[in-house]
């Protein structure tokens, strides 16, 4: 296989060399004397121009080289006559690896709506936009591993099937092998999960954190990067039922160390994409500009995509407590305009996405780290502050995205933890293994979770989380 990738053809000198390329036809323009075929092989957003002389290549083959067809083309790299590209491939032989009947192939060389492309998610990776998104997604995933590896963190694989609900929100997908039409029943007439595969009730994990904490109590600094599942019925542009989460967990870190790490980490992976995905990000920047120009002037983002990414990397995030944020929100609506009537009146309520967006996009105009939330709106494992009302939580809010990270310093004191679990009705017997970490060699520790797709959304400038994962799982959608 002498296949040369288009990315390499464009970056190295192949002039006068004999090569094979393989890829998909994006467009073909023909006249009597010559055909120009724009080929894409996924290695780069850029197409490579192939020149086919009808005296050299059979008519039938050229006829079959339609948009979407897969071709192997052998020939010589020559200097390009036209503008735009330095070199082009003079075809000596074209082999049609797979036809794409133009009457039936859904992806024609025109602009398709993202909604339409979502319905053909099995083919959309062949478009410029999705090629770019998935290459950037890949680069970000790589940057995540590189960041933590360079810092000496260990990658832990936490289980997908579990018996716990770390966040305690009750939004789990059940896992069972029982025949639920005719389940075995116990003495009380309830489904007898003792007879299930794991001899207990199980579900898909909502977070790898609890197991991550166990690992950090021996390896000190670890991270997870895996799929997590939430059966929350939220049909929004920011929620998936199956999403990937990165969860570092660090022994000996306090809340501030946690914030410092999170900020440094976010800046690192964004910089990595800026440095390594230039072509794709330039393309996505233009795409985002087009989208913006369709919006009403007052709804347009103040910065372009690349500008926004650089801004986040270059500026310190704003840090403030929940209580301070409530004051900002209260003062944001001095005239009590109707639009903001529902703004926090009362300390203790959870922030809605409108509030988060106000803080990030209108007030501070930069990423915000919000800390020390009321304990009643946060999970049981967060460390209680001395005021008795708040916990050492942190959420990081990003422009255009809202919450991108949730994390906290953990409650390492056994008595405080069990007391909180009691208050929140969390069965301690079932969590004996978790409590053991506080019984034996406990130490202050902290961690956070980054929603990977929300990060990909931010970096690609796409508007809907369904468009940054290859096969989105959302309410009603699990076809392919
Ligand atoms: O804030 P969350 O629920 O925090 C946790 O799961 C903690 N156990 C993390 C930790 O401390 N180790 O979720 C973390 C992040 C959110 O900030 C958000 O970015 C993302 O996960 N997220 C989702 N992303 C897509 N779809 C959903 N349904 C999401 N739910 C949360
Ligand atoms: Mg959260």
From TrEMBL:
Query: What InterPro entries does the annotation carry?
Result: Aa-tRNA-synt_II, aa-tRNA-synth_II, Asn-tRNA-ligase, NA-bd_OB_tRNA
GO aspect biological process, one term: asparaginyl-tRNA aminoacylation
- This protein's major location comes to cytoplasm
The UniProt record lists the EC number as 6.1.1.22
- Catalytic activity, per the record? tRNA(Asn) + L-asparagine + ATP = L-asparaginyl-tRNA(Asn) + AMP + diphosphate + H(+)
Tell me where in or outside the cell this protein is found: Cytoplasm
Report the top EC class in one word: ligase
Pfam family of the protein (one): tRNA_anti-codon
Residue spans making up a coiled coil are: 274-301
Similarity annotation: Belongs to the class-II aminoacyl-tRNA synthetase family.
Protein name as annotated: Asparagine--tRNA ligase
């Amino acid at each position: 296989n002498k296949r040369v990738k288009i990315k390499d053809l464009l970056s190295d000198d192949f002039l006068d060399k004999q090569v094979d390329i393989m890829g998909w036809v994006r467009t073909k323009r023909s006249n009597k004397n010559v055909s120009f075929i724009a080929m894409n092989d996924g290695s780069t957003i850029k197409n490579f121009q192939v020149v086919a002389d009808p005296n050299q290549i059979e008519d039938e083959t050229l006829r079959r080289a339609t948009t979407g067809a897969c071709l192997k083309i052998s020939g010589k790299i020559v200097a390009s006559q036209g503008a735009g590209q330095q070199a082009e491939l003079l075809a000596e032989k074209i082999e049609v690896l797979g036809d794409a009947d133009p009457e039936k192939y859904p992806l024609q060389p025109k602009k398709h709506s993202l909604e339409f492309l979502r319905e053909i998610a099995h083919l959309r990776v062949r478009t410029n936009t999705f090629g770019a998104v998935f290459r950037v997604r890949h680069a970000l995933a790589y940057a995540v591993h590189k960041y933590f590896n360079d810092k000496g963190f260990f990658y832990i694989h936490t289980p997908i099937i579990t018996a716990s609900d770390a966040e305690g929100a009750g939004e789990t997908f059940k896992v069972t092998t029982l025949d639920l039409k005719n389940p075995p029943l116990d003495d009380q007439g309830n489904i007898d999960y003792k007879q299930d595969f794991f001899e207990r009730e199980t579900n898909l994990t909502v977070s790898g954190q609890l197991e991550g904490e166990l690992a950090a109590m021996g390896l000190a600094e670890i991270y997870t990067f895996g799929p997590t599942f939430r059966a929350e019925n939220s049909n929004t542009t920011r929620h998936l039922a199956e999403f990937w989460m990165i969860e570092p967990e660090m022994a000996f870190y306090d809340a501030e160390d946690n914030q410092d790490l999170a900020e440094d980490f976010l800046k690192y992976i964004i910089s990595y994409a800026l440095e390594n995905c230039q072509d794709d990000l330039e393309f996505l920047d233009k795409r985002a500009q087009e989208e913006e120009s369709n919006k009403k002037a007052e709804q347009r983002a103040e910065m372009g995509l690349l500008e926004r990414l650089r801004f986040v990397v270059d500026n310190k995030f704003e840090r403030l407590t929940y209580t301070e944020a409530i004051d900002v929100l209260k003062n944001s609506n001095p005239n009590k305009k109707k639009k903001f009537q529902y703004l926090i009146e009362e300390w203790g309520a959870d922030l809605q996405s409108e509030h988060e967006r106000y803080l990030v996009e209108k007030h501070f105009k930069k990423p915000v780290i919000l800390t020390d939330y009321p304990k009643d709106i946060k999970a049981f494992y967060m460390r209680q502050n001395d005021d008795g009302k708040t916990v050492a939580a942190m959420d990081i809010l990003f422009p255009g995205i809202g919450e991108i990270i949730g994390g906290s310093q953990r409650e390492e004191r056994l008595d405080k933890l069990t007391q909180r679990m009691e208050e929140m009705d969390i069965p301690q017997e079932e969590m004996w293994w978790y409590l053991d970490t506080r019984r034996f060699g406990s130490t202050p520790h902290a961690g956070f979770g980054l929603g990977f797709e929300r990060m990909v959304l931010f970096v690609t400038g796409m508007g809907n989380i369904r468009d940054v994962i290859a096969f989105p799982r959302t309410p009603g959608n699990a076809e392919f």
